[in-house]
Structure formats: structure tokens, C-alpha cells
Amino acid sequence: MKATIERATLLRCLSHVQSVVERRNTIPILSNVMIDASDGGSVRVMATDLDLQVEETMAAASVESAGAITVSAHLLFDIARKLPDGSQVSLETADNRMTVKAGRSRFQLPTLPKDDFPVIVEGDLPTRFELPAKTLAEMIDRTRFAISTEETRYYLNGIFLHVADDDKPVLKAAATDGHRLARFTIDRPDGADGMPDVIVPRKAVGEVRKLLDEAMDSNVQVDLSASKVRFTLGGEGGMVLTSKLIDGTFPDYSRVIPTGNDKLLKVDPKSFFQGVDRVATIATEKTRAVKMGLDTDKVTLSVTSPDNGTAAEELSAEYKSDSIEIGFNANYLKDILSQIDNDIVELHLADAGAPTLIREDENSPALYVLMPMRV
Questions:
Q1: Is the pTM above the cut of 0.85?
Q2: For residue 53, which of 248, 198, 211, 217 has the smallest C-alpha distance?
Q3: Domains defined along the chain, listed by start
Q4: Which of the ends of the chain has fewer CB neighbours closer than 10 A, N or C?
């Protein structure tokens, strides 16, 4: 194989695929990217960790001889990063080595044959639909902070995508870690009818989100079956991410969304976030709870820490119900408040032991549920 590629093109492509590659690998081939140069003048680059695979096709300045080889992903990425701007990078393979040349720099890297490189077999992906990249990015941003990191509850380690027929056909994304729940709803895209319920793993969610930043003005094609999902960005020759799905059953989260919470608090989310952030300064690992005291048209936030003393702050708000005191994990509350773009956030409360519903308003596509803490 011999190909010459613009440094900027090579670097951009490698930055997309190399983050899939784990830094520590017991299987040497998984540390490598596959580089496949074709006579047509394009070079395909692919990386995998056996559960997730990213491939991208880039245009080469020239392909003198076609062929495919695998080489260390992080090493090639670091070399491309440090090469001078605007340089032409020549990749040539011979005798189990890849020679990388640019200007006066020359590197020789060990390679492994491409036949050893594992490729995820997609099988049949019967469901296909398209989404604007912006919409998919918002679905991810509004929900992924609630993904559980507890490995024992592996079925919560991702975003749950499923269709439903509410007042109209919708597609919902949900994530929960047992303490909080985030759900985002959009109109059902054409082609998503009858799709299986799927759980997209956390790592795949993170990688897709990174790729979306480069394709915000385009559409994303989603193909899926009950066990695999494929995201295609940038059309033909763009970026393709294929991932295995989590093999588990997501709990029926609709049961924890409260419907009868009769106490309504309306408050400015920015000042609320800043107030929680300020009083939580003295909270320790053991006392992460911030206490909210609600009275007519005001909220009193307080934290008591046996080691660091006490803090309190009063905020004006719209509240007409009975007085109530309730405690929340300060970080969880801040995570949710940081998702609210509106000038007002609604908190629907019942009592100190019941989950609280948080949203911008009743028409908002995003909805959050937060479990209280004892304080």
C-alpha cells in the first residue's frame, strides 16, 4: 500500500476513530486502526473495541498502490498531530512496517495484517429512520447525565430508545441511575414504527455525540435491530458508527413518573442553580444533601455539615401551596437544572419522601424525576 494524504485530512479522520481504541489492550490488534487504500483515491480508516466500531472514508491526495494494513491508532494519531501544518503525509507499507513520511520527518511503525482485524458483523438491520443531527445531539445531551455507572445494573448503562403512542406517535430517549430519571420525547421519525426497544451503551452514546459536532447541519441515518445499531453521519463516505446494544431489559420507568404531585414551585433555573451551588460548597461526601424549605413565594436552601458548619440562602419564587421541607442530592439537582434553557423551571412536589417532577413546562420535550434524600 502507498498513499499520500493531506495532514489536516488525516488528523481529522484519526481524531474521530482513535478515541474508540482502549489505551490498554490485551489483544494487540485492538490497539490498531485498519487503513485501507483503494484505487479510487479514497482511504478508509476503521477502529474497534469489539463492541463498538467507527469507520470513516477520507479523500487521499494520491493512492499509488492499493492495499490494507493495521497500525497503532494512538501512535499514528500522535505523529499526525505533531507533523507540520499543511504537510503531505505519505504512508507506505513493506515487510510488516509502515513508513510515515512528511517533509523531513520519517517514522517506521510495526504493523499487523488486516486479516486479523475484527469487524462487527451487523446482520440484518430492519429499522431505518433519519433524524436531524441537532435533534439527536439534544436527545443525548438532555439524558446522558442520568446514565448509571454501576456495572452490576448493566441494563441502566445506556440510553433507552423506544417508540410510544401518546397523543401522537413519538420516539423517546430515557436514562436513569435509580436516583434520577431523564426523558426526552420527539415526534416519531418516518420508518421508526415498530422498532424494537433498544439500550445504546454509554460509550457508543459518547462517541456518537463527539461525531455529531462535525455534522450538525446534516441528517443522521439510524439503522437498528434488536442487537445492533448503526449511525451514519455525513452521507456516503461519511462517518459510520456501529455498536452492539445492551442485552437486557430496561425497567418500566413510567411507573416512577409522578402524576399527582399537587405542590408547584416555579423558579428561575439559573439563580436556583447558583444558590444550590453556593450552599453546597460546605457539603461533604457524607452530607451531599441540600435542604429546600418552601414557603409562600420563597425557597430557603440550606446545608448543614458536622465538619464545615452551615450555609443558607433565600430565593424568591412562585409558590402558593403548604409549607414543605425536602432534601436533594446537590449534584443531581444541579445536573438537571443545567439542562433547563428556559427562564422558569417547574418543580412538582408531593411530600418529603416522594419523587419530584422537574420540567420547563407541560409542553417541554424534556422531563426529569429526582428522588429526595433524607435530611
A1: yes
A2: 211
A3: 2-116 (3.10.150.10), 127-255 (3.10.150.10), 258-370 (3.10.150.10)
A4: C
